[in-house]
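Key idea: predict the complex, not the pieces.
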Amino acid sequence: MSFSTLEFIIIFLPIFLIIYFLLLKVQKKSSTIANIWIVLGSLLFCMYADYVGHTYYNMLVVSIITVFNFCVAHGVSYFYKKQSYSFLRVATFAFGVIVDIGVLVLYKLVIKALPIGISYYIFALVAYLTDVYRNKVCAEKNFINFSAYVLMFPKLVQGPITRYSGFSEKLKKRQVSVGRFDRALKLFILGLSYKVLVADVLESLFREIQKIGFESISTPLAWLGAVSYSLQLYFDFLGYSMIAVALGGMLGFHLPKNFDNPYASRSVSEFYRRWHVTLGLWFRDYLYIPLGGSRKGIVRTIINLLIVWLITGFWHGTTLNFILWGGILFFFIAIEKLFLGKLLYKTQVVSRVYTLFVIVISWVVFAIHDIKKLWVYITRLFPFIPTSYNSNVLEGDYIKYGKMYGVVVLLAILLCIPRVNKWIVASRRKWVSSFVGIVLFVICVYRVSKGLSNPFMYYDF
Amino acid sequence: MVSKKHIEFKDLMLLIMVLLVCMTLWGYGAFLKYEGAADNANSPCEVFAYAITNIHDGVYPWNYEEKIDPLFCLGISGETSIGIRSNTNISESEEASLEESSYEMTPQDEVTYNSDENSQKGVGLVASLNSERIFSDLDLYNIKAVPLSGLEAAIYENQNVAESEEGLSENSETEDVILPELEFETVDDTYFDDAVFLGDSRMVGVYEYAGMNNATFFAKTAMTIYGLLDTVATTDPLGRTAREGLTDTQYGKIYIMVGINEIGTGDTAYFVNKYSSVIDEIRELQPDAIIYIQGIMHVAHNRDSIDAYVNNRNINERNQALSQLADGQRIFYIDVNPVFDDVNGDLTQEYTSDDIHLYATHYATWHTFYLEHAIVLP
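Result:
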């Protein structure tokens, strides 16, 4: 039951929201009962979050980790009040963080069957523990409120990675209004459309290319595939994040934005300040700066960047290509830090072309897990590299797929332009947006249901 | 900034509209009872999805019960529906005979249309409309239960199959005397000058990557037997349907491969019945052509192991039934699966990324297979 399934949109969400709003009405002074409902609903969501079959398993893992962190945070805050126990404070904090990260590493490296959303909520919890340790926030005393914060289904599966400081007040008492709900609903539909009508369509282009086999695609098709994969990744995650923010809004919370028109960036460093913002900020605040950031000389800065980017790669996946991906990004961000950055910001066009080029290539590395296949794809992108495999290219294959997917690719490129986004956000206030919203919603539901009817993706063999 | 009252009215309208759409969908979904899908596919929503999809040609809400009886899918054998519940038009004695014959499932490979015993039995029994013959036909196609409401229709349909099959097998018996058994030979590429290929995405793959540029293709992704003749082919430069193409030109060889997309539609008998009538139609358009029925290509293990429909057990069942349509004279059955299968009889995992389609580089092997499995009429 992810956000773009019919079970979620048609059954879970309406029922959940109706009861939730009733509970908020019933208990006006605080929101504890509504928080209990969030916890229950989120556990249910978690149970059905994937079809692989470990349903109780997802629920159990997240519950245990929540209880554990609640206790650790309390310990840290208790020892903070008793000044003489500062060693115990450090020890408890370190124990909590090591266990959290240890669980994540264990799952990623050894067990492989990752419980849903674990990469995200572990990071949010580490941030919480650190903030409690630094005394930036008080440890939450109410276990219900704390579990509601951790489990909250809008952000459970794929973030955004939140900070507790933005939630503590809202957890105690919050309000919802019809106007706010309307805005959230429109954002929800827009996010759903990005996911279903843009990302999912583009995804099938990349799947077609995989179907052909990388040896047998023409160079233009290889580039079309790379661009379309970059767009697909963006709209998939953007759509998801928008839905998350919208759902948070419906519940009365304010979730942070994850994307800020990243493809308009003028350097790779800037790209990663605007792409998956909450993850970037997490790495900055809880890893890069504690390591010394850029204040301890140029050599340390470079080493810190290397550590951050290798861990970022590892966080995304444990196969070799993710480490390679992190390494490539490190390389470009490092040389930008050293000298390239200043040059880039003197130009408007060259800097953007450079950024897009590096990013698109890096997404290819991100996409293809098998290193041998990755190399084949690279040789298709750059046909002047000598190769040793048999190629069996259909002449004009890029025309065929261009006709099939060109419109969506162009639409997606258009939607990457900041001004277009600004216009869309601005026209949310116009009455016509309600109408457009309904139409988009119906189309999305139709598409989702059409995909569902086939156990296989679209059953188009 | 718009006034607050205005916003609320608009919001309520939007909310109500969305709720209405949701409830309509849900209501429609709940209206149909579909019990036989994969484990995760029996929520009302998915039934709605199933009902509006276009790939399960021939299945609509109004004939849904007939075509996909839940009993089929649940694998309940004949006794509940045929023996007990169908009490209207079958007399006691017929019921008794049913019990004897149809409850034991005959292993498929032991029964063939060409076996003497069967055809002899068939000739006499079909004439007298004896239900025993009919239900042994059902057994042959591995039918486990007959839709309750459509029992008579099923009898009628299968009788038709039986009769047409009888015709074929009789023909072959009589012609056997005149013509020697034809065997596959190895030929060169000119063989395909007057060949035409009809089919689904697997045939599109052959069209694009097998390098058989002299052949004609009427293929389209997601093709089914139900649309084989009347769907505009994406591979035809003139944008014709197969029927138009076969009307325009006389071909020497006709290759057909469909079956994977409609593997969840109807049952094997329904599918083969349709297949047989399509072949009859093609025969009318192309009286002299050799028709190759191609066995449906297997899927790889990753798909086979998780899919309630698209799995090799179903494919083999249908291939077995398809192979019976061949007469050894003008209609032949060829099966590419041994070329691409692994030791377990699944499509080799290394040959495919989506478990369904071959990588482009492997179509050359398929081309060779065609060259080595050609019939040359004397």
